């Protein structure tokens, strides 16, 4: 599949999930797993109906890995921020990242509550609803507004911080300058939580890393990492050291 078609495919996936949840009523109903809601399963079925039957692999938070034969794989969280969705907090999304031979090439993060759509393609920059986006120029942690996922073990000496509850959208907020940085200080993120957002950050010109220097892109369903994103390399370095208990 040519890279120019990824965003078209992702749009179809987002439309399918949006349609499946439009008249959904059982927002607080649990799913089959303790960490899952029924809404996650409904969204996953809708997404897989679009993605399956192509020569691509699929890694979904909800249903695991479906191998492909092309070296291309879509990493998807059908609803990132599903606890927000269950409480009707308008900050939850579909998160999709296309990876070709372990290299991200396209991504889409679609806010199901607001309709905002973040996109990126390799070497083509990042966009919000079709318009180019860029991070801030913040390089001082003491002046930064930082998004977090999970309770930090140590204080974060930023000017302020926010915990919005949907990592993919939080990372996109770094890409478009709403936040100066983002971090998961508890290393609790699956690759579907951050793959699309990290790529959108990179293509926008932001800087990304992992709490302990690990490669962020992988295809292990049970593995959890601590992604970090920052507007500048200086801020990334400061954020990287804030929770390192072994430093």
Please tell me about this protein's structure.
The chain has helices at 6-22, 38-51, 82-86, 167-175, 191-204, 233-240; strands spanning 57-60, 64-66, 72-80, 93-100, 103-111, 117-121, 126-128, 131-132, 145-148, 160-162, 181-183, 207-210, 227-230. By secondary structure, it is α+β, with helices and mostly antiparallel strands. It folds into two domains: 3-132, 2-Layer Sandwich (Fructose-1,6-Bisphosphatase, Chain A, domain 1), CATH 3.30.540; 141-240, D-Maltodextrin-Binding Protein, domain 2. Strands 2-1-3-4-5-6-7-8 form an eight-stranded mixed β-sheet, sandwiched between helices. Strands 10-9-11-13-12 form a five-stranded mixed β-sheet, with helices on both faces. Strand 5 (103-111) and strand 6 form a beta hairpin. The longest helix has 17 residues, at 6-22. The chain is globular and about 45 Å long.
